[in-house]
């Protein structure tokens, strides 16, 4: 169960209207790595988790915080739009290049659809979608996904910090960036702890029987480009991070197989197939066969 | 530039037809973490990369291998469909519950749209989409995304290994799983190397000035659920993985702010606002104002 | 801010596994009118609302309840999948038509992607998307959207009630149906109250100046089909529900205008246009013009 | 069957080019609540309807009118683009901030893809999609959806009326707004008539047996936020609009249940589960089990 | 304007229920090349067309027919579902493998969402979307798109003809296939006529000045795969179909250029860049620079 | 298998930064008819092809070239963004209308998400999707799709040529336009050759038995609009292009059928049906029936 309190985790009020920045903030709210993504990702990980205890408490505890971040961003966006010249303006104003530029740079659905409110979309107006989230039931894989999400999110917030001078907006961003610092560290710690406690090791999933993978290529670097310097990396020689193998470097594949011959589906799929001896003859044969059905 | 060779990296021929498994394989080909995703993800990381050398050679080298994996899966899928009873069958057969079940379990577009061929979709028939990929220009973030993609992909392939007894299919899966073992290790090694060489440290992005984040909450575990055991994790006390902080644990937020008052957009957005003293009066006022424009 | 409590609003445990029904339940979780939709719809209405007080408290109060419904459904789905034969089974079992039928009827991503867990998708596997929700800032319009969402949701849940005999599942559905009864009534009451208090009247938005709409057709029923009985409805004669007009019935339009002539865009868009006197001549002209740039 | 007449229901010619407004008009053409939505929504309701007569004639009659509205908007958009400086212009012009702003504010696919023509997308360029429409077979639910669609559509058109001074555009909008006035009233009348004639009552669906819903919570207002004023609404006490219950107000849930224990899926899904006594031992066990298959 | 007549162009009644085939028919209704696609494609081509007369009359005349085809398919689908065992059945029946298989093979949203009615989706349940259509304003390009759409549609209908024995369904398919025969021929004729009349020639767009394309490679077959037989085709030697060039065959590219050096974006995008001499030093520099802003 | 060479097929370096044009170029990279589409379309056609030899070598040979075009465009886009004022700029600059206009006209995700890099999206930021491609197994249909793709692509590139004065960009476009010239010609030649060699004739699929289509309407032009001039085209009289029929012209349909009566689904779908004699009586009956289950 979830409960709502009509308070924010941090102040979220801009110094002044800015419809163009309101649009940009949508990325942090409803983008691939926005707050809706992490909120629902952590929730689904909790609902699909197979073990009780600290890891499940962890994902639930952060999931709820993240919906509150959606709320802070939506609140900020509505205020950035509140008094901005978002299209409903006198003619004179609209002819002003500055105003015109704002209309160009804003999300016009902020005005037309939401009446100067926030929307569940990214900064290009693409609706948020369920395929952004990851919850596989394998915790080492999922915590790595979480670490990535927090890294991408923090990078985006950091970029946007330099796209505004508004102190209110910068304050909110500095708060969100700090929480991303925490969450990056937390998922790194959780992924490390999972491994130290033996829940899961690399490569994930760790209890797929090694005998069943084609081990000849499990630690081979196979280079399909012509760049030569990939051979210099720690992925091309020396022990592998999982402690189970030794990297080797190869230019191109170490195994190949001929392409199997083209398939021939049932003729009633009407795919194009080998040329018969004569068209008329075949047409007749096909006709015969089909007329029987 | 890319060049194609009409050979496969590994044999990809099933023992027998299986339209239902063909559908499942689509997840590895065109799913969120399928081979189209990793192929294009690594390419875009290469095209957007700001440094020449081993890291760029690495992403290009693997990207090209991954398109070859798309090819192996598509080739396998076409063969699994080749002689399967995928709907174009005599009435008697269709009434057979086993055949009916196959039609139920298959991707019907394999038959109707592709004429017994592979499709750029996942196992539920959702078209592959560009929003699956990640290429931010920040390599530590992106290599973490890559590690996650290989972990999710290997987990899915491992699951599917147990969903078939076909030796040909299992052979292909065991090859792909081995390459996922390699690629997980490789991205882990690359992420470690990036940090050791000082290109990027945690938290990412590492050169966002620490003074600009709201440091009071950068290492606080804030628990928004009522599970008590999250306090026991290594994310709740002790030094943080980035080596820059000390975790603390708090039940709920350490900072709060009142929600700002509701916004009032321009009246010409026709949002619902406070009730005027009398409706008639206001209606008149609004009418007056609008008639003037 | 949102807080999570590790309890459910109602019991959500099935009598036995049923992967096919688990897939159907996804419609109530992640479909167009599923619980994610209403949860986020009510939240965005709250964040975009221009008036404090009972209407805003209403949307926040219900929004939080609805995320809890997402949680109950996800919890139920994971249990329905827990011991179901979802593909990872011995060969013998897979050849059993009943098992095959289950695999046909289930969401295969439940197994492959989520490892027997819930997903943010509908019953056809389409990812939930932000374009399902409605939050315009106009409360009469939005509360009507909410009433519709609860009506569609209750209809779907009622249908699904008859698709299972599992007592645990039916109990959960009977609880959700009861809450939909409440929420339908509540939005009807809220829409009525909005109008009684004068916040908004029909037609919405009610303060768009009537003088600015083309009033000749504001209360005309214009019939563009050849069914004659539409004339018998209360929408074809008598006073209109908004109390401002009198319906009239017309067979076909009462106004028409000629189509304007085709447009002629800049020739550099290379659209096909009128045939010149001679092709050669024009080609020369175009060439001349373009070569100058 | 549908027949086309090369006339419009109303004039649709702008005074002058305006590529930015052309983009905004796309919302009314191809947005969530645009004319394609209502046209197809009413058609599908007609095709899925279970009763002949006035209700079916009604949806068919309006559906056909609405495709004509798509046509008027497309015609207007093409004209707004006809002579607008949409990117194919001399360098000097492009350096003019006003022209640059137009390019920023326009839908660039209007130029690149459609050669100065209309597109089946919304004002952010999102393609129209079938998931916008509603046709459940339950007419009270569907007519409520229709009333909502007309309310949202009229609100958007009213907002856009104030975003232009072009008389031709305003004329078309004033016509569409008038038709939305009619259609709002019409769906309200039809919903009322359905109930008066006993086809369907609240709550919808009305013949789901009341005994099968969990009636204890059918009329309870359960407040999951901390706003206190929701208790003041007509949804918190007094008789419910469906005439079958009495509202009561409760702070938080009146029923709760413990979360069921985490699920344990088949181990071959490789989800993370409880820690075994010793990793080595389990690994061995798993290996044994798997090697047997 | 469009007018609806409550008649069908052809009978559309099945012999018996078949929920699985109802799902397959959705491909022809709402798939990439279904009837919604061609109806809207031809309409948008009409609205965006720059010349009056026979070509515009052609697209409008067929567009209206195609919406009627949507109607026939929707009508057929509703009837196929009418008495089919689509899930709402007694327990005994659901345990019957045949019934279970039907539920597996059907579109479950037909039951849950539409109450045994048609939906605006394809045979995998993907919603129809505006990005399926093509209307560029260039008629030779667009008529080629139309010819393709009719070819793909006829191929799909022909495949489905062999997936059923129902006479009513086969009758409808045989009618639709005949119309596809007509429409293929018609677009071929129209494309030929456009060229004969000089409106447009190959390559399209034909009046892009030849001097502005990089003519050295305009008629070169460049082979980027290792298949040798592509050299045998009429595309590898001899005159080109546009009558303006002579094909030549080349193994691989005839032109190459070095990749430009990696880009270096503004440091405030926090992309990973070249390693500085010492991390500490740089960190200090960046800090200095940023603190100034 | 695919191999990558770190070279481009043609130079791809702009004279100067231009973030707005970078966004436009995304259409050619990731749009409906962009290079990702043709690359994957040709690959899937190869993987699904049923005949070895020149046609398969052809699609593979071009597919690989087209990924190289994706690479050239991505490389160009990154350079156009490299030094452009894309939002991360001093306040003074952002107030400059020209800079503001650039921010309005650019793809803001270029900055926020990709850190000044290319993205797998179109010029409106819609992610590329698998439903853009066509690979049916029927080669005449598919080569027609390919011809269309190259025509649309060349038209778009030609339009964009006139939207820039940058010599580097124009050079790249002139190269791509020349390749589109080649590819249009090549698919036209291949489609012709397929027919000359008898693999496939019009109408496609050519071996669907003519006796099974409803031949009465196979060559009838049926006009559902009121434009009279469609009768003048070569599609309305004379021999049909497939050489098998004679076109005739008809105003409106030549066949009609009454709409079948409305369907009545199982009452447990709760669709609205005919009004019973009295509501109370029916409610009782339904209740009785349902209570028994």
TrEMBL record, chains A, B, C, D, E, F:
Transmembrane segments: none annotated. It comes from the Bacteria. Gene3D superfamilies: 1.20.1260.10. Residues 230-276 are annotated as: Disordered. InterPro entries: Ferritin-like, Ferritin-like_SF, Mn_catalase, Mn_catalase_dom. Belongs to the manganese catalase family. This is Manganese catalase family protein. The lineage of its organism: Bacteria, Bacillati, Actinomycetota, Actinomycetes, Pseudonocardiales.
């Amino acid at each position: 169960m979830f409960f709502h309190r009509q308070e924010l985790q941090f102040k979220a009020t801009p110094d002044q209207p800015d419809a163009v920045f309101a649009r940009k903030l949508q990325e942090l709210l409803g983008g691939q790595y926005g707050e809706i993504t992490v909120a629902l990702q952590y929730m689904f990980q909790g609902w699909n988790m197979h073990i009780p205890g600290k890891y499940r408490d962890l994902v639930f505890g952060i999931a709820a915080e993240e919906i509150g971040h959606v709320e802070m961003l939506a609140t900020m966006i509505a205020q950035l739009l509140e008094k901005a010249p978002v299209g409903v303006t006198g003619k004179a104003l609209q002819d002003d290049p500055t105003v015109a530029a704002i209309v160009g740079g804003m999300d016009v659905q902020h005005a037309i659809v939401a009446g100067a409110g926030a929307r569940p979309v990214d900064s290009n107006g693409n609706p948020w979608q369920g395929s952004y989230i990851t919850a596989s039931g394998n915790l080492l894989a999922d915590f790595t996904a979480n670490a990535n999400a927090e890294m991408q999110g923090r990078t985006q917030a950091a970029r946007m910090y330099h796209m505004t001078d508004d102190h209110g907006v910068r304050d909110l961003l500095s708060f969100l960036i700090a929480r991303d610092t925490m969450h990056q560290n937390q998922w790194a710690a959780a992924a490390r702890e999972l491994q130290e406690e033996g829940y899961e090791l690399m490569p994930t999933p760790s209890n797929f029987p090694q005998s069943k993978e084609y081990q000849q290529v499990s630690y081979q670097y196979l280079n399909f480009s012509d760049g030569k310097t990939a051979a210099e990396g720690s992925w091309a020689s020396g022990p592998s991070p999982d402690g189970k193998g030794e990297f080797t470097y190869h230019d191109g594949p170490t195994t190949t197989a001929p392409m199997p011959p083209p398939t021939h589906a049932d003729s009633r799929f009407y795919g194009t197939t080998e040329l018969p001896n004569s068209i008329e003859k075949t047409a007749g044969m096909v006709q015969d066969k089909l007329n029987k059905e």
